[in-house]
Batch of 4 targets.
Target 1
Amino acid sequence: MKLADFATQLTDAAKTVDKVMLDLFGEKTLPGEILRPARVTDSMTYAALAGGKRLRPFLVIETAKLFGKEGEGVLRAAAAIECVHCYSLVHDDLPAMDNDDMRRGKPTTHKKYDEATAILAGDALLTYAFDILADEPTSADPLVRVSLVKTLARASGLGGMVGGQLLDLEAEGRFHPDGKPLQLDDKQILRLQAMKTGALLMAGVDMGAIIGGASKAEREQLGRYGRALGQAFQIADDLLDEEADAATVGKATGKDAAMGKGTLVRLWGKDAARKRLGDLVHEAEGALEGFGEKAATLREAARFVANRDR
């Protein structure tokens, strides 16, 4: 597959997921709801539809396709994981966390609105994600819906993304009297990054496998792919933070170095990090061998992650 073809697929999937989210964020209430205040739905929409690659929902869609599954249920699951991702960005950008003013080339949600609205928009995106997954249109099989909810909850919660964000703040020295960054070794950095970033990428792959009815062995293979992809994504992200400019990536760069934050790029050096990045792409591709040509798009996703420029 040519990179241009993959980019088109990614863009087309992003547009489809954006439409699904826009429909889901509408003013019409669902059974059990009383009112959807416009400021909440507006800020949710701003936060979630302000651009982005939509890689996590893309992984849901493409993994489900391995097993011949497409349609409304897949797209709803894809929208759900993107809701969680977007909530995490809204909260990460807050002054109490990363204190960022720009995201995807636009003012962050708390700058566009205010901090209170941004917190509530993030809360709404997070809770709505599980509403989407638990609702029957996502799957007629209640066991599938429960498995999707559990997978996303564990990836995004205290033992996954939230826990990883806490470790990241701790590594910055946020909770220590002297305020000095911790000197993490590579194992500690890998664990932190696997939680903060990798867990949700892995969840996207696993959710597609769940919808597709994958066997235990197939889910294990795809799990190896997801782990390699997640680590590759973070190394590529750290390289961008070191080398790219803010206009290119749509957010502030150089913050890791300014805060003395430990990354594999800073610990190993850029050349060693790039070599590891190439190795991870090969690992991801190798994990998909059993799926043959059906997995061509997922293989290209690993290459895209490693070579992206924003």
Target 2
Amino acid sequence: MEISKKKISFLITHYNRPIDLLKCLAAIRSLNVLDSEIVVCDDASQEEHLETIQDYQIDQLLVSKINQGLAANINKGIEACQGEYIVYCQEDFVLDPQISSLLPECLDLLKKEKVDMIRFTSNFPFNKLIPLTATVSLIPKFSFQNFLQNYYQYSDHPFVTRKSFYHKYGTYFENTSGRYGETEYAIRILKSNAKIGITNRILASTIIGSQSVLVNESILENKEYKMNKSLVKVARAFRLYLELILYNKSKRGLMSYKNFRK
């Protein structure tokens, strides 16, 4: 299958990190994917940063007048994407050059509905995976071997999916803080029949020295990481299983998380 016969949108969300964005863009352009576009969705960055990125090689640059949060930023970008397939990447990530040769296989798996989304990396390795090809594995919906990772099937780390994924499973819950929104969507996807895959090799990495905008969202969340990491993982797992049981898809609210954008 020729990538040139497919229209692919590379969607990048950005907020106040123009240097990181430049590196992210360079990595995408080096893939030399034909018949593609680059869409950058900016969430009301400071004026000096906006002036900087205006000179970057971007096919579509969308700029919010006010900061609306990551969820709204992604939703706006998805709507603007013209491609059948979307490769999503936050500005603090760079895609591996190997993606160029592996992307046709990923698109074929998506087209045949073997998977609904393929992730390129994960902070937490899954102990149990179901091999689909030499390149991609399926994350099981539930596995005791993945007891501490089951709820991490979805992440807003780089992935590829079809634009129709969002028509089928819904877009992101807006007016939420970043971590709240990502967690809510992860639970939403875990409770759905969406099949999430992941590449067997790490194909995306964070830019060294880049600081996540989520780090300073709340003092409470920062304190959590000063605790014993093993205890935090176990406590978080039970907390999220409870959220999974109590989750109401229509209300889309989390019971034990605070939304810091309200």
Target 3
Amino acid sequence: MFPIILSILILSTTSNAAVQDFCVADLKAAAGPTGYSCKNPATVTIDDFIFSGFRKPGNTSNTIKTAVTPASADQFPGVNGLGISVARLETEQGGLVPLHSHPGATEIAIVTQGSLVAGFISSANTVYYKSLEEGDTIVFPEGLLHFLFNSGNGTAKAIFSFSSSNPRTQLTSFALFGNDLPSDIVGKVTFLDAEVVKKYKGLLGGSR
């Protein structure tokens, strides 16, 4: 009996093993639910496994005074299918990353410069947040709303790592106000006055 059970265990642990070393994203093809299809291995080069987008500083001249430079499968084809990606954050004094979530990834943030306040909200609506300094690391569990803002007097920087090659991002404010859902419906489901909804739709590009 034991040899049979052992054989089943071995088969179950090897049946999902990778059948090739990597799956460099074919960016010319459409992405599906599981990511991009694989580029022909004969056309893969070392450059597919190199990302140089962090060489230049990001543009923080925007409303939130923040630049996030992603290195996911869209920008870094070599990570496609590997369950990992990274991003860089630069945020000026008073800058922030508003409430958002990553539907398909857990995120780890490492502060590399300055001070940040970062936190997340659990599905039980419990809030966890703390002031972080250079060298501190925080984890945001998959799918939960989270945020951060610059709490110091200068530029703050961080590196993010995700448990997905394409973590996707949904900004809460744009989900509510950057869409074509009628203002009266948005107001009804958020308990906000319709005029307030129209104001924010106007700011974030939603139709009123």
Target 4
Amino acid sequence: MSLTIADVLALPGLESMRLRAGTAGLENGVRWPYVAENSGIAEWVLGGELVFVTGINHPRDEGNLMQLLEEACERQVAGLVILTGPAYIQAIPQRLLEAAEAAGMPLIEQPYSLKMVLVTQAIGSALIQSEQLGRSRDDVLERLLTGDYQSLDLLLHRGGQLGLSLAGHWQVVQLQLEGSELLFAQGDAAAVEVQLARQHDAINRRLRQVSAGLPVLGRAGQWTLLLPASDAVAALVNRQHLANWLNPLNLRLAPLKLFIGLSAAAHPPARLAQAQDEARQALAAARRFSERAGLCVYDELGVLKLLSGVRDRALLDQFLHERLGPLLRHDAQHGPNLMPTLEAWFHENGNLVAAAQRLAVHRNTLTHRVQRIEALCGLTLDNSYDRLDIGIALMIWRLSA
């Protein structure tokens, strides 16, 4: 649970602090207070700070204040606090207020008569309390999702005391951000770390907005949250909402990519561990099957539900190698060729022209490859039973890729 700008403004003793612009950022999470002593802040903040701007150590004319706002937006700080009074910054320029409002950056006015030590002490204490409460709330949700409890009633009672409203039916959502290795290969490691931190913070903020006031569990580019879903209709609305957010987001994130898996609907608190497992299976399918566009719901898995239910991984591997072992060995020795061909052929439902186009090869080349596949495997693609076996083996291969 994080402390927001709105929470800071509501703290006892800080009533004289006024929000002057940037109402759209009231829910920005505050990581820590930071007093700006230099002409700029870009080198000194990491994102999420509530930055206090005085004129004590550096003159703050309109141009400098506009520069600070630009850097605050660039570094994704939580908000700016301008200390005003007769001695240093007499008033906040109108142009700064308009720019902050347009950027959605909270801009707060604090009179110099309100001592800074009282402000930072109030915020620091609130941050500690918020962190402790957040850890307790996270612990309740993690126990529900793992089934790690002796008494569900006691755990739900504890959640109620912490402000967690867990009654009802839910859908578990799991998200995973991938592709960071591509970023590190392209740029300076320190700059990439900053970029990744910004992306994580942006995703966290969005997820908190849709999480119905419940904690968003997350670390290292992986997140879990609950969405209300009393029936299949509500689950469909959740799916569409996430898809509408995910598709344009992944265009902006490239080469990073976010994947989402959702459980089935209508899980009461007693079945959240099962829902967690369903969401994990759906996430695996979203990551391995590109045709799902990065998002999958457990109800869409079809036969993959059966494959995911096989706990003996060796049994699946045995089936894969019995059916497609010669192709796997061929591609391991000569490079990926026959397996991608077989996959394209299946994806296009046996349409040689479409499969050739998908692989960017001539149709005759594809025909020769298909003949080679049948010869190596001893299977016939025109035989319905052989095609069923091959299709299942391909799914196992994709899940283990």
